Each structure stands twice: as structure tokens, then as C-alpha cells.
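Pasting as-is:
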Amino acid sequence: MRPDTPAENVDHTAEAARLERTAGLYPEDAEALLLQSAAHLELAGDRPAATTLYDRLLSSSDSLENPHLIRALKAANLWEYGHEAEARAIIDGIRAAAPRDPAPWVIVAESLESHDELEAAQKTFTEGVTLLLADVPEPPPHASHPLLFGRHRVRRMLGAAHDDWDVLADTLHSSPVPLDELHDPKRVWSLGSDNPAELQAEISRLRAELGTYREELSRPFPVAVLHWPTGELAELIGAYPTLSDEYPSHEEHLATIEASLRELSASGTPNLGIVTGTVPSYEAFAASEASSPADTDLLPQYATTLAARGRAVSWPPERGAECWCGSGRPYGGCHGASA
């Protein structure tokens, strides 16, 4: 699907089938591609087929990057076509597992919210916020903002008094319309008002919300730098010795990545990231380009392709996060030590 294709002109069933075929060609990206395919099936109204894809991923022998996310999406999908009991059981399991990723928390909490389970949604949002942000210095990671905003919205509907997390949500919110106003339960009344001023105010609020959504959706994939783990780089050089000029050693490779990203950042380049390559994936990419893996011009194209598939990890890592190099040490004590 072209990025500029209007949503109403998309054949979601055909797009889901295309993504499923692509997943067969690129097994290393199968999880991300099949999740996109399932999303198109949901939009097409074929929720049972979407559940089948979620089950296919969860039963795969391959290790999953985001198993809790897949379960959360499956639960939300099941509830939408009448499988409430199973959905609730999965949601309870996710809450008990306490994932460290904000996305599953947001999905299951919003699922509860959409079915008028506001107390349960508020508790779920609060569990996620407390787990992920209690010991994180401000500002919190961008990925956690939907947790705070969703919690604020549900508590506003419940008429709960502001607490410290709500104040933090207000602080992080960048729209010209305050969160209290956007999340006002009485807003719907203004849509039936005969007062032009009230209608104009609601139009302004809706435009602000739309602007926020567009900003999130338009975040481009990062300008990505290619990273080879130790074993993969050794295999790459062993198979294509001429690439040793590009990669004299693994230590120098890692240092070059950090230096390149800092230089790009200093020049004002936004949204930087790192993609991790594998030899089989790179060879498959080279074959698709009718080129040799030994061609150094292919390396940046490979990095861009991985980033476009959603494989990039943003740089620099969030405060306290592990270093991008895979050492297991915090970034601040590894490649970020001199930042």
C-alpha cells in the first residue's frame, strides 16, 4: 500500500494477504508483518481471521519480541466479536505478567474502557504507570505518554481528583487545548448545542486532538545506522572478506556507530535510530536487489529498508536503558559514558 493511499481506498483483505506473503519471504520480520496483517483483517471486519494470525504467532516455535503485545491485541480483538470471557482471562494474565512495555498496558486498559469498564480500566492504567514510571527520572519515555494520558482520561470520566500522575500528564501534554478540557465528559453535550460559541470551542478541541494524532502518525522512521552483533559481523566478514575494509574490527564498528549518531545529532538530524542486521537477512536483501552482499553501497540501503520495516530502535536510549550495543550495561555506563 502506498503511504499516500487514502484509507477508504484500501482493500484491507488484499493488503493483509500481501503482508502475510511478505512475512514468508522475510522470516526475521514475520512478527511485525503478521501484526500489520492482523490489523488489516480487523479493519476488514474479519476478526476471526485476525485471531488466527495472533494464535499463529503465539504458537510459533520462534522466540517473539513482543508476546505480551500480541496477547493484548488478541484480547481486544476477541472482545469485539463476542468472546468476552476469553478476552478477560487474557487481560488478567497480562496484568499478572506485568510487562515492562507500555503498549500492552495501553491496549488492555483501552479495551476495558471501550466496554465501559472504567474502574477496571483506571486500575489497569495505574498498574502500568506505577510499574513503569515509579522509579524513572523525569521526563518519562515518550512511549509511556499514552499510559499517562489514558489514565487521565478515564479518571476524568470517573470524576476522580487530580493526583501526581495526572499533573505529570498535564505537564507532558503539548496541545494548546488542556487535557482537562479534552477529557471533559460533558464535551459531547456541546455537539447538540445551539450556541455557536460552544460549537466553535468543540471544533477547536477536535482539531487539537486531530493534530496530536497526526503528529504521532507522521513520526518518520529513523535515520538509521546499521549495527552488526559480534557473531553476525564475524560471519559476514568470513563470507565476504572484502567487507573487512568497511569493518576492521567489532570494537571499531561500535565506536563508529556511536560517533556517527552523535555527529548526526549535532547537525540537527532528528529521529535517529539503530537497526541490527543478520547475515541471512542481508543476503536475502542483496538477492532481492540483484546485487552482491560484498557491495558496500548495499549496506546503507539495507539499513534504510530495516528501518522502514519498523526494525529501528531509537537513539539515544532512554535514561537508564541498556546500551544499544548489546553489552547488557546501562547506556550511560557504556557507549553513552562520554555523552
